[in-house]
Write a structure and sequence with these properties.
The chain has 516 residues and is an alpha/beta fold. The chain is built from 19 helices and 14 strands. An eight-stranded mixed sheet has the order 3-4-2-1-5-6-8-7. The chain is flat and about 85 Å long. It starts with a helix and ends in an 8-residue tail after the last helix.
């Protein structure tokens, strides 16, 4: 049995996704957090840098350094000689040597966190890998009988320049890593869910792992102190599971580790139902479980087995790729659509008094409140920044220009600047107003698990919008459909999916029956 089979059980999905909110969840909506938990959360409120991102950047940088060194030596020396192999041949050798160096560095753990923390190994391992790559190229050139086509001076100069470039890069990387370590940002922050002896055993095992980058921030447990001590292995119990959600909104947490045994299935499911809305990895500790799964079902921290239940969506290099796409595409769209935005601004100014832009408080990533920009579509004196009243068909608050730009979604174009700022993504769940409601019920009260849509950065448009779920939300089914589409997007994200949604956006604008 794999953990996926547990996750797909009807009982799991019914408890985690369909259960009504509890009284404790009502309290966490109001952001209640005890003093100790708040103090610890503030201590861990700074962003962290993933070791995986640093390793990926180091691989890319060293590949580029070695390749560019080969091309630079070719340009300044070989081109003046006027004979030998072509530019393409030298480029191929340079890229091959770079790839071999990166592979060899990976093989001797040159991209591991413990290597980045040690200045000597930080330099010696990639230097040794480059030496191996050079030797392999020499042997290959000899047996293929092509070495005479390449300049020996180029080869020596390329190897020397590459070594100097790698050493210089690693020295800068080392300084950066030590700066991150001193500020506590080069770590994975973990919270233990469930106290007592299982938590104590897990903490001892985690702390015994060599070169571990896991930082335990505290323990949360619903049980009273007589069953769950207030301090376990030196770490305090910071509060209940309901308070953990509020803690996760304030602190930058990477993973939650549940220490409860799988035999306590009902209790585990109830916890997961509360915790899955957070943008973190959620793991079940398997170090004390007698029930054993297939080896592939486990992930490991050193020698400690875990069952992965939820993974943080769009993390590490996926997040970098998505952000780079947002910056490039949003910048291009601002340039291309600038005539439309200027014409809209002029029309708003001529149509009614008041500012051209409208700012509204909306939920962003991890429930952070952000200011979203829109072209003003209502009369200024009737504006509703808190979204206390839903806009309906023929709403007298909407101006003549406002009706057109709302139907065509032109009023959303200023949000491209929110994308550049980093508050929004081009594609993602649409950010809803903080007080958005239907029939006097806030949307997080209508849809259980509503806040799970905030596990990723919200978007200017999304999967729900291009499928027709945009505009007025006058019944509960419409908001449920939006949330379902948003969760589907989060679980199935890819860059191609973002591009598909953007290509569908112009076609979806013709569906204006719910846009007022």
């Amino acid at each position: 049995m794999a953990v996926d089979e547990i996750r797909d059980k009807p009982d799991f999905r019914r408890v985690v996704l369909d259960s009504p909110p509890s009284g404790e969840e009502d309290k966490l909506r109001r952001g209640q957090l005890n003093a100790l938990a708040r103090e610890v959360a503030e201590q861990f409120s700074s962003d962290v840098v993933s070791p995986g991102l640093i390793a990926g950047f180091a691989r890319l940088a060293e590949f580029m350094i070695i390749t560019l060194c080969g091309l630079a030596v070719y340009h300044f020396y070989v081109t003046n000689q006027g004979d030998g192999a072509s530019w393409a041949a030298y480029a191929a050798v340079s890229a091959t040597g770079a790839a071999l160096t990166v592979i060899a560095t990976q093989a001797i753990d040159g991209y591991q966190l413990e290597t980045f923390k040690n200045r000597l190994r930080q330099i010696s391992k990639p230097a040794a890998a480059l030496t191996v790559a050079v030797i392999i190229l020499l042997i290959a050139g000899f047996f293929l009988k092509i070495s005479f086509e390449f300049s020996r001076i180029w080869f020596v100069a390329w190897a020397g320049a590459s070594l100097a470039g790698i050493v210089g890069f690693r020295m800068m990387l080392s300084a950066y890593v030590f700066r991150l370590m001193s500020s506590g940002r080069l770590e994975r922050r973990a919270v233990i869910v469930g106290g007592g002896e299982p938590a104590a055993l897990l903490i001892r095992q985690l702390e015994s792992q060599p070169h571990s980058d896991i930082r335990i921030c505290g323990i949360f447990d619903d049980r009273t102190d007589d069953r769950s001590p207030p301090v376990v292995s030196g770490y305090p119990k910071l509060g209940t599971i309901a308070e953990l959600v509020a803690f996760g909104r304030m602190a930058r947490i990477d993973m939650l580790i549940v220490t409860l045994p799988l035999s306590a299935e009902a209790r585990v499911l109830q916890m997961l139902k509360r915790l899955w809305v957070l943008p973190v990895d959620i793991r079940l500790s398997a170090h004390t479980n007698k029930l054993r799964f297939r080896p592939r079902s486990y992930s490991y921290e050193g020698t400690i087995p875990f069952l992965d239940v939820f993974e943080r969506p769009i993390a590490d290099w996926d997040a970098v790729t998505k952000r780079a796409f947002d910056l490039v595409a949003a910048s291009a769209l601002i340039v291309l659509l600038s005539p439309v935005m200027l014409a809209t601004a002029l029309a708003i100014r001529l149509d009614s008094r008041g500012p051209i832009l409208f700012r509204q408080k909306r939920f962003g990533f991890n429930n952070e409140v952000i200011d979203v920009l829109k072209f003003r579509s209502m009369y200024h004196e009737m504006s509703d920044p808190d979204a206390k009243k839903v806009v309906t068909k023929g709403d007298p608050r909407v101006t003549r220009v406002g009706r057109f730009i709302r139907k065509s979604s032109i009023d959303e174009l200023p949000q491209l600047f929110n994308v550049l700022k980093g508050d929004l993504s081009l594609v993602g769940p649409r950010p809803h107003a903080v007080h958005a409601h239907t029939a006097n019920r806030l949307w997080d009260e209508v849809v259980d698990g509503y806040f799970a849509r905030h596990r990723v950065r919200p978007g200017v448009t999304g999967w729900a919008q291009v499928n027709g779920w945009r505009g007025e939300v006058d019944d509960e089914e419409k908001i449920r459909q939006r949330v379902n589409h948003d969760l589907y997007y989060i679980e199935n994200w890819s860059l191609l999916f973002d591009i598909q949604i953007m290509l569908m956006k112009p076609i979806s604008l013709f569906k204006t029956e719910n846009a007022y």
